[in-house]
Amino acid sequence: MRPDGWHLTEDLDDFLTRAGDFLRSRPALHNTPLTAIERLRTRGADGHGAEATVFGTLEAVGDVRAIFYRPPSHRLTLTALSPEQADTLAAHLAGLGYLLTGVLADRDTATAFAGAWQRHTGAAPVPSWRARLHRLGTLTPPEPRPAGRGRVVGGEGRAQLIRFCREFAADVGEVPAVDARTWAGSRFADRHFTFWETPDGTPVSMAALTSMLAGMVRVDPVYTPARLRGRGYAGALTAEVSRAALAEGATDIVLFADPANPISNALYQRIGYVPVTDFAAYDFSRHAPEAG
Q1: What is the C-alpha separation between 31 and 213, in angstroms, rounded?
Q2: Residue 155: count of CB within 10 angstroms of its CB
Q3: What whole-number distance in Å separates Cα of residue 265 and Cα of residue 43?
Q4: Residue 243 pLDDT > 50, yes or no?
Q5: Omega into 221 within 30° of 0, i.e. cis?
Q6: Where are the beta strands (DSSP E) in the chain?
Q7: Were both Cys, which of 54, 98, 199, 211 would link to 70 (CB 3.0–4.6 Å)?
Q8: Is the dihedral of CA 139, 22, 282, 184 positive or negative?
């Protein structure tokens, strides 16, 4: 173990042996690392290129207190750290010469680490994303319910699904855009999608669930084309997939919403989602040199 308590490895099995119980201990707060690391496990930790993902655990008296992972994109994802722990980690990674393009964590941790990284490397942090984590309390389906029904997407809906995901990615500024050629390697490929269809069978909205991990399921994404918004489709569909997750035995059903969008926040809260905490990401304007 490192003198500062951080253990670094490129061995995913070693990391999961050390950190698995910690990640499962707070599945709602740890929803992003749980799903991302499961994707690395099933697709291969080096699935994005030759460079290995680096994993870290903060350990004290045999217990894991926090984790990070840095995939080939070089964007660091962290669980909650104190400002002092964030500074120690930033100094440690900078001292090893690690390249970072940004950081994602709960808002306080991300802000503390971004400031520490700037102090230790000179890389200026630029806010790039913010979202509010919600967890389902008591599900309350919206009334009145729009005409139509939810339908689980099968192979026959793949073309429409890809179009909706491409439109969603464009709406939120995700790159690269997804298409039929890149679908299998996209973040959408391992989701379980449902359409809201009008009575004539026309898909007008989509929502997806991640696979259940430690009793946790995340609703992500939810999308209705702009021309069809304001008709209750997203609320009805979010309630529909949330009900399905409860029926499958999920104990923590979560979703992220843009805190700057009062409409979506109010919608999710009306159907039973309760705000938990805010998350944030920063991009770094320049980077420390790579080790070696």
Answers
A1: 9
A2: 7
A3: 33
A4: yes
A5: yes
A6: 6-9, 54-60, 63-70, 75-78, 102-106, 125-136, 149-152, 192-197, 203-209, 216-223, 252-257, 273-284
A7: 54
A8: negative
Entry pTM: 0.92
3 SS3 class: coil
pLDDT reading at 257 higher than 70: yes
Q: What is the DSSP letter of 272?
A: T
In the chain, the N- to C-terminal Cα span, in Å, equals 21
Question: Interhelix angle for 83-95 vs 107-121, to 10°?
Answer: 40
Distance CA 134, CA 245 (A): 15
Mapping DSSP to helix (H, G, I), strand (E, B) and coil, where does residue 125 land? strand
pLDDT at 44: 73
Q: Is the pLDDT of residue 49 over 80?
A: no
Say how far apart CA 37 and CA 71 lie, in whole Å: 10
User: What's the whole-number mean pLDDT along residues 127-131?
Assistant: 96
Amino acid at position 56, single letter: G
At 146-170, the pLDDT tens digits run: 999 999 999 889 999 999 999 999 9
Cα separation, 131 vs 119, in Å, equals 26
Averaged pLDDT, 66-82: 97
**What does the block give as tokens for 90?**
């930033």
